[in-house]
Write a structure and sequence with these properties.
Number of strands: 16
Radius of gyration: 16 Å
Largest sheet: 7 strands, mixed
Helix content: 10-25%
Strand content: 25-35%
Structural class: alpha/beta
Number of domains: 1
CATH class: Alpha Beta
CATH topology: Metallo-beta-lactamase, Chain A
Shape: globular
CATH architecture: 4-Layer Sandwich
CATH superfamily: Ribonuclease Z/Hydroxyacylglutathione hydrolase-like
Strand order of the largest sheet: 6-5-4-3-2-1-16
Protein backbone atom coordinates (compact mmCIF):
# COMPACT_ATOMS: atom_id res chain seq x y z
CA UNK A 1 0.00 0.00 0.00
CA UNK A 2 1.25 3.47 -0.88
CA UNK A 3 0.05 6.85 0.31
CA UNK A 4 1.22 9.70 -1.92
CA UNK A 5 0.68 13.37 -1.12
CA UNK A 6 -0.52 15.62 -3.94
CA UNK A 7 -0.16 18.81 -1.92
CA UNK A 8 -2.67 20.55 0.35
CA UNK A 9 -5.33 17.88 1.10
CA UNK A 10 -4.84 15.82 -2.05
CA UNK A 11 -3.67 12.22 -1.85
CA UNK A 12 -3.22 9.22 -4.10
CA UNK A 13 -3.81 6.00 -2.16
CA UNK A 14 -2.84 2.73 -3.82
CA UNK A 15 -4.68 0.05 -1.84
CA UNK A 16 -6.00 -3.41 -2.72
CA UNK A 17 -6.99 -3.24 -6.41
CA UNK A 18 -7.85 0.46 -6.23
CA UNK A 19 -6.00 3.70 -6.91
CA UNK A 20 -7.95 6.34 -5.05
CA UNK A 21 -7.51 10.07 -5.65
CA UNK A 22 -8.57 12.01 -2.55
CA UNK A 23 -9.50 15.68 -3.08
CA UNK A 24 -7.19 16.02 -6.10
CA UNK A 25 -6.57 19.76 -6.52
CA UNK A 26 -3.75 19.83 -9.09
CA UNK A 27 -4.23 23.07 -11.06
CA UNK A 28 -3.46 26.25 -9.15
CA UNK A 29 -2.26 24.34 -6.09
CA UNK A 30 0.96 26.09 -4.96
CA UNK A 31 2.29 22.81 -3.55
CA UNK A 32 1.80 20.72 -6.70
CA UNK A 33 3.99 20.82 -9.86
CA UNK A 34 1.37 21.04 -12.62
CA UNK A 35 3.69 19.43 -15.17
CA UNK A 36 3.36 16.17 -13.20
CA UNK A 37 -0.44 15.86 -13.31
CA UNK A 38 -0.34 12.82 -15.60
CA UNK A 39 1.85 11.03 -13.09
CA UNK A 40 -0.50 11.86 -10.25
CA UNK A 41 -3.63 10.48 -11.92
CA UNK A 42 -2.12 7.53 -13.85
CA UNK A 43 -4.12 4.37 -13.27
CA UNK A 44 -6.63 6.06 -10.98
CA UNK A 45 -9.78 3.98 -10.47
CA UNK A 46 -11.91 6.34 -8.35
CA UNK A 47 -12.00 9.84 -6.90
CA UNK A 48 -13.10 10.49 -3.32
CA UNK A 49 -14.21 14.02 -2.47
CA UNK A 50 -14.71 15.15 1.13
CA UNK A 51 -16.58 18.35 0.22
CA UNK A 52 -17.10 20.78 -2.64
CA UNK A 53 -14.67 23.62 -1.91
CA UNK A 54 -12.32 24.49 -4.75
CA UNK A 55 -9.12 23.70 -2.88
CA UNK A 56 -10.35 20.10 -2.71
CA UNK A 57 -12.61 19.54 -5.70
CA UNK A 58 -11.69 22.08 -8.39
CA UNK A 59 -10.18 19.48 -10.74
CA UNK A 60 -12.46 16.57 -9.89
CA UNK A 61 -14.92 17.03 -12.74
CA UNK A 62 -12.18 17.29 -15.37
CA UNK A 63 -10.24 14.28 -14.07
CA UNK A 64 -13.37 12.16 -13.76
CA UNK A 65 -14.43 12.89 -17.35
CA UNK A 66 -10.95 12.52 -18.87
CA UNK A 67 -10.30 9.19 -17.16
CA UNK A 68 -13.85 7.88 -17.22
CA UNK A 69 -13.87 7.15 -13.50
CA UNK A 70 -16.49 7.73 -10.84
CA UNK A 71 -16.52 10.34 -8.10
CA UNK A 72 -17.56 8.92 -4.72
CA UNK A 73 -18.96 11.57 -2.40
CA UNK A 74 -21.99 12.64 -0.38
CA UNK A 75 -25.29 12.16 -2.23
CA UNK A 76 -26.11 15.82 -3.01
CA UNK A 77 -22.66 16.52 -4.42
CA UNK A 78 -22.77 13.30 -6.45
CA UNK A 79 -25.98 14.48 -8.12
CA UNK A 80 -24.25 17.73 -9.06
CA UNK A 81 -21.42 15.75 -10.71
CA UNK A 82 -23.96 13.63 -12.60
CA UNK A 83 -25.61 16.80 -13.94
CA UNK A 84 -22.21 17.94 -15.22
CA UNK A 85 -21.77 14.67 -17.11
CA UNK A 86 -19.49 12.75 -14.75
CA UNK A 87 -20.00 9.30 -13.27
CA UNK A 88 -20.65 9.35 -9.54
CA UNK A 89 -21.25 7.12 -6.55
CA UNK A 90 -23.41 8.94 -4.04
CA UNK A 91 -23.59 7.66 -0.50
CA UNK A 92 -24.07 8.99 3.00
CA UNK A 93 -22.49 9.05 6.43
CA UNK A 94 -22.39 5.54 7.85
CA UNK A 95 -22.52 4.05 4.35
CA UNK A 96 -19.74 1.76 3.14
CA UNK A 97 -18.79 1.11 -0.48
CA UNK A 98 -16.34 -1.37 -1.99
CA UNK A 99 -13.83 0.25 -4.33
CA UNK A 100 -11.57 -2.40 -5.80
CA UNK A 101 -11.49 -4.34 -2.55
CA UNK A 102 -10.94 -1.28 -0.37
CA UNK A 103 -13.86 -0.65 1.97
CA UNK A 104 -14.64 3.06 2.20
CA UNK A 105 -16.98 4.33 4.92
CA UNK A 106 -18.18 7.92 4.99
CA UNK A 107 -17.97 9.60 8.41
CA UNK A 108 -18.78 12.98 9.84
CA UNK A 109 -16.71 16.16 9.67
CA UNK A 110 -17.34 19.66 10.99
CA UNK A 111 -16.83 22.30 8.31
CA UNK A 112 -19.01 23.45 5.35
CA UNK A 113 -19.45 22.54 1.69
CA UNK A 114 -20.30 24.39 -1.51
CA UNK A 115 -19.27 24.39 -5.16
CA UNK A 116 -17.96 27.47 -6.96
CA UNK A 117 -18.63 26.80 -10.65
CA UNK A 118 -17.57 29.01 -13.55
CA UNK A 119 -17.59 32.20 -11.51
CA UNK A 120 -21.18 31.88 -10.33
CA UNK A 121 -22.53 32.05 -6.80
CA UNK A 122 -21.55 29.17 -4.52
CA UNK A 123 -23.91 26.19 -4.84
CA UNK A 124 -24.69 24.24 -1.65
CA UNK A 125 -23.09 20.81 -1.95
CA UNK A 126 -24.54 18.67 0.81
CA UNK A 127 -22.53 17.99 3.93
CA UNK A 128 -18.80 17.95 4.61
CA UNK A 129 -17.38 14.48 5.25
CA UNK A 130 -14.40 12.35 6.13
CA UNK A 131 -13.60 8.74 5.21
CA UNK A 132 -12.41 5.52 6.82
CA UNK A 133 -10.59 3.44 4.21
CA UNK A 134 -9.91 -0.20 5.13
CA UNK A 135 -7.63 -2.55 3.21
CA UNK A 136 -4.35 -4.46 3.25
CA UNK A 137 -4.44 -4.78 7.04
CA UNK A 138 -4.87 -1.04 7.65
CA UNK A 139 -7.61 1.46 8.35
CA UNK A 140 -6.90 5.01 7.19
CA UNK A 141 -8.85 7.91 8.66
CA UNK A 142 -9.08 10.80 6.19
CA UNK A 143 -10.43 13.60 8.37
CA UNK A 144 -11.40 16.04 5.63
CA UNK A 145 -11.62 19.66 6.72
CA UNK A 146 -12.76 19.56 10.33
CA UNK A 147 -12.32 20.75 13.86
CA UNK A 148 -12.26 18.41 16.84
CA UNK A 149 -15.59 16.59 17.17
CA UNK A 150 -17.01 14.43 19.93
CA UNK A 151 -17.86 12.02 17.09
CA UNK A 152 -14.17 11.22 16.90
CA UNK A 153 -14.63 9.25 20.11
CA UNK A 154 -16.89 6.56 18.66
CA UNK A 155 -15.16 6.77 15.27
CA UNK A 156 -11.83 5.91 16.84
CA UNK A 157 -13.28 3.11 18.93
CA UNK A 158 -15.47 1.58 16.22
CA UNK A 159 -13.19 1.84 13.17
CA UNK A 160 -9.83 1.66 15.05
CA UNK A 161 -7.79 3.44 12.36
CA UNK A 162 -4.04 2.99 12.63
CA UNK A 163 -3.22 5.75 10.11
CA UNK A 164 -4.56 9.27 10.40
CA UNK A 165 -4.50 11.79 7.55
CA UNK A 166 -5.42 14.93 9.43
CA UNK A 167 -6.22 18.41 8.12
CA UNK A 168 -4.44 20.52 10.72
CA UNK A 169 -3.10 23.74 9.23
CA UNK A 170 -5.36 25.97 11.32
CA UNK A 171 -7.62 28.92 10.36
CA UNK A 172 -10.05 26.79 8.30
CA UNK A 173 -9.52 23.53 10.20
CA UNK A 174 -8.11 22.38 13.52
CA UNK A 175 -4.53 23.43 14.05
CA UNK A 176 -1.54 21.25 14.96
CA UNK A 177 -2.11 21.43 18.72
CA UNK A 178 -5.81 20.62 18.41
CA UNK A 179 -5.10 17.77 16.01
CA UNK A 180 -2.52 16.31 18.40
CA UNK A 181 -5.00 16.56 21.29
CA UNK A 182 -7.72 14.85 19.25
CA UNK A 183 -5.34 12.11 18.14
CA UNK A 184 -4.28 11.41 21.73
CA UNK A 185 -7.79 11.48 23.18
CA UNK A 186 -9.82 9.68 20.53
CA UNK A 187 -7.49 7.50 18.47
CA UNK A 188 -4.65 5.03 18.73
CA UNK A 189 -2.76 5.94 15.57
CA UNK A 190 0.56 4.35 14.74
CA UNK A 191 1.12 6.88 11.94
CA UNK A 192 -0.18 10.42 11.42
CA UNK A 193 0.21 12.37 8.18
CA UNK A 194 -0.65 16.10 8.36
CA UNK A 195 -2.26 17.91 5.46
CA UNK A 196 -4.05 21.17 4.62
CA UNK A 197 -0.89 23.01 5.67
CA UNK A 198 2.06 24.81 4.02
CA UNK A 199 -0.09 25.74 1.01
CA UNK A 200 -0.60 29.41 1.92
CA UNK A 201 1.07 31.76 4.45
CA UNK A 202 -2.20 31.73 6.43
CA UNK A 203 -1.71 28.04 7.27
CA UNK A 204 0.86 26.31 9.48
CA UNK A 205 4.17 25.89 7.71
CA UNK A 206 5.48 22.90 9.67
CA UNK A 207 4.15 20.07 11.79
CA UNK A 208 6.52 20.60 14.71
CA UNK A 209 3.67 21.12 17.19
CA UNK A 210 1.95 17.97 15.96
CA UNK A 211 5.15 15.96 16.40
CA UNK A 212 5.69 17.39 19.88
CA UNK A 213 2.13 16.57 20.86
CA UNK A 214 2.25 12.93 19.72
CA UNK A 215 5.20 11.20 21.41
CA UNK A 216 5.44 7.57 20.38
CA UNK A 217 3.47 8.16 17.15
CA UNK A 218 5.19 8.24 13.77
CA UNK A 219 4.34 11.68 12.38
CA UNK A 220 5.36 11.81 8.72
CA UNK A 221 5.56 15.21 7.04
CA UNK A 222 4.83 14.17 3.45
CA UNK A 223 6.68 15.24 0.34
CA UNK A 224 4.69 15.84 -2.82
CA UNK A 225 4.59 12.76 -5.09
CA UNK A 226 6.95 10.78 -2.84
CA UNK A 227 5.28 7.46 -1.87
CA UNK A 228 4.90 6.56 1.78
CA UNK A 229 4.84 2.72 1.69
CA UNK A 230 3.02 0.56 4.24
CA UNK A 231 3.14 -3.19 4.65
CA UNK A 232 0.54 -5.21 6.53
CA UNK A 233 2.81 -5.24 9.56
CA UNK A 234 3.41 -1.46 9.65
Amino acid sequence: MNIIWLGHSGFRIEIEEAVLLIDPWLTGNPMFPEARQAEAVAGATHILVTHGHGDHAANTLRIAKERGIAVACVHELSEWYERQGAQSIGFGKGGTIDLGGAKVTMVNASHSSSVDFKGGDPVPAGSETGFMIAGEGHVIYVSGDTDIMADMGWMGEYHAPDIGILACGGHYTMDMKRAAWAARKYFNFRTVIPCHYRTFPLLAQSAEELVAGLPGVSVIEPEVLKPIPFGAED
